[in-house]
Amino acid sequence: MDVYDSLLLHETPDQFFIEPIHDPGNILVIDRLNQEFSLVEGKKHIPSTSKSRSIFGIVGTIRLLAGPYLVVITKCSKAGMVNGQDIWKIDETEILPFARTILHLNEEQLSENKVYKAMVEHVLNIPHFYFSYTYDLTHSLQRLHNTMPEFLQIPLHERADERFVWNRHLIRDFVSQPQMAKFVLPVMLGFVQTHHCTVNRKKLLYTLISRRCCYRAGTRFFMRGVDQEGQVANYVETEQIVEYQGDKCSFIQTRGSIPIFWSQLPNLKYKPKPEAVQGANHLEGLSRHFDFQVLNYGKQVILNLIDQKGAEGKLEKAFSDVINSFRSPFVKYEAFDFHHECRKMRYDRLSVLLDRVSAEQEEYVYFMLLKDGTVVRQQDGVFRTNCIDCLDRTNVLQSLLARRNLQQVFLKLGILSEGQRIEDQHDFENLFKNIWADHADVISTQYSGTGALKTDFTRLGKRTKSGLLRDGVNSLVRYYKNNFADGFRQDAIDLFLGNYVVEQSRLVIRIDRSWKYLLLPGVWCIATAMVFVTLLLPNELSTESLLYLLFWSGMAVVSSYFIMANANEFVDWPKLVGRHQPPKQLEL
């Protein structure tokens, strides 16, 4: 069952009327006063005085302090086509209050409601949300083909994989009434690009789709590892699709945080130490995670790219120890110290890891469906790649695995002949690299707040000085956001996904900062500025200027010490869900 693709929103002071343009006899009515949802037949129910405009779908409703809000799509653009069906990207949304006035709120409630609304807007502005009126975007080609025919007659939101439906909390008022199914639009967060290409003078459609899981969703430092249900942070399913003369091939990979209990809470240091949680039942968390993985994808090869020395090395050892205790015949573990092996920009060393897992790539193959409906092969295993963030190193390796898969697919489909290589198809190779670099930036922005690092290698096949400079800028922006902005971002995600439900009687956003929060950064800024002024202004270093330099340098050092000693005062901690708590003691 498809979803209505063209809608008119009619507003009156008391009601919202949502009219399907191609089915005007089936109109959704939302009563703004008693908050009831109903269907009526015919346009006669819509007052002539209503304000009308086009919308492109309903994201859902969310309740804040001022009452419910209706979230609608006001602008979208075509992201591509998969299996002959259109995929759309959300470009703009609008949040419409049910209540006509908010006079029932006091000043403090008004302030907090404004913050809640800003949180919802923040999530809706995360790049990129996608949807389709006709295609189940949350499932791979293989899963869709392996379902019963009756499955495709089920409403789109009911058959969607709930792991990837980001508005599942917002559509709860609609799904409770089955007759409204054609108004319910599942929305996915991730990445979609499709391109018509010519390879070896043969035309094909290349698609890359990534589906971000809404379980254990959050920001880089506040959401790490596994939870009690086996869900991991930053979990993404990536599907590469080739369509050629009616035949279709699909290759799935996954990424996700190391599936044991560990944390890496911000503390103003550039790179806080990742630490496994002492006394936690890591084996149980890992077992539940891989139960899901094997059920959904078959055999697993874990490609762990974190350092094998230092703080990351301790985490790698904890992970490998749990894997050794797990001893599953369906799970293989491959550790590869990316930074050590590829030091001095020797990224060609990744071929060592690719060769080590080439047998599994040959064994797991990919899904292939001929135009006559014949399934030639099924993918019965996946590579599950991770580094610390599951962003930069992970994306580099996933792109190389994807290229090896394309070599197999192009040979099987007859796009390339024996002896020909993708790398020699320069136009497609350039397109492929840029798609995967764009993919890296989007997936990274959704989790860390900035574009990916190391994308110069993905785009150009080598590391460059300009790429290193770009990585430096992104690293600084990540540092700022992860320490001073991610509490808000984490709260916004928790609110949007329904992990936190707003209560009228409970105000939690407001926080009183201590005197240190304002005084110490001010002292540090003034002291640092005076150091530079003292160094730059005098023509020669006099005794007086030397004393000034020593004084202000001392003030900068002392204020830095006290800032780091009171790091918890400065980090932007989440406030809505109580799972994130500042550590009692921090190393200086």
TrEMBL record:
The keyword Transmembrane helix applies. It comes from the Eukaryota. GO terms for molecular function: phosphatidylinositol-3-phosphate phosphatase activity; phosphatidylinositol-4-phosphate phosphatase activity. It catalyses: a 1,2-diacyl-sn-glycero-3-phospho-(1D-myo-inositol-3-phosphate) + H2O = a 1,2-diacyl-sn-glycero-3-phospho-(1D-myo-inositol) + phosphate; a 1,2-diacyl-sn-glycero-3-phospho-(1D-myo-inositol 4-phosphate) + H2O = a 1,2-diacyl-sn-glycero-3-phospho-(1D-myo-inositol) + phosphate. The chain crosses the membrane at residues 515-537, 546-564. GO terms for biological process: phosphatidylinositol dephosphorylation. This is Phosphatidylinositol-3-phosphatase SAC1. Its EC number is 3.1.3.64. Residues 120-449 form the SAC domain. Keywords: Membrane, Transmembrane, Transmembrane helix. InterPro entries: SAC_dom (IPR002013). The keyword Hydrolase does not apply. Pfam families: Syja_N. GO terms for cellular component: endoplasmic reticulum.
